[in-house]
Amino acid sequence: MFRLQNKRPLSRQLRLVVRDRIDSALDLLAENDELTPGTVHQLRKNFKRLKALFRLVRTLNQAAGEQEIARYRDLGRELSSSRDREVIEQTLVKLQFLTADCAVIERLDGLLQRLQKQDIDDSSSGSCESIDALRQKLLEARHSAENLLIGDFSPDLLMGGYQETYRKSRKLWKRIPESRQQEDWHDWRKRVKDDWYQTQLLSNFREDNTRKRLANLRTLADLLGYDHDLQNLSEIIEILAVRPYPLDEEVQQLIDKQRLVLQKECLELGRKLYQDKPSVMQKQFSSIESV
Known about the structure:
The chain is mostly helical. It has two domains: 9-79 and 124-153, Four Helix Bundle (Hemerythrin (Met), subunit A), CATH 1.20.120; 81-120 and 154-291, no CATH class. Helix content is 76%, strand content 0%. The protein starts with 9 loop residues before the first helix and ends in a 9-residue tail after the last helix.
């Protein structure tokens, strides 16, 4: 976990973070002959961290910052299909342990087998061509970051970027109980991950101990991720079912019940993380000094 240090050039430290994440991705490509779901998962984690970093500093150059965020978002989407399929399979297996109804378990297993048998043409999984193309895009991304993160800039820029992340996440936490919109849950998950990654970077500048906050953010991100997986599974079941199947309604009820439990936990944990106004949160940071 990379933590920015006080009284050291921030731009240089941020360039080091970008290099580290991109080099990690390049190493993954060098070590693997194909883009397996596990490799894709690790690559996408690197891309999410890089998006969080550029959200932290995008006011340095709004247009260029947005371009970098879009770059890593697009790279992640290009790799999504094989990993998403694996996650759906894992979610179907998890659900089998949440019911004692043998008929429902059998139906879940049947859906799992149908998914595994599907012949999916995943253009991102494995050709040397696609790996070479991804490697080239990462080299271009590293060069672009070197040009953007240069010179000295005000440390207040980092505080402003983090405040924006905190403000957006807090707003979604407050809005969700009334809206109950799936898109709000999905957006909140992304903002919580941004908060988690950015808090890691800025942990040396907080006057309180960040260990507990980081643990709570990690837990919340995982819970929101599982809720998102269940939502995706609901949609996939309609595709997997060749025709209406009586037990699918019971499967859906099982999914809905589990999601209600998860969402209640998420909102309670959100209270611990986001009850303070952004102005109060800002006071928890000591001043950042750059040289």
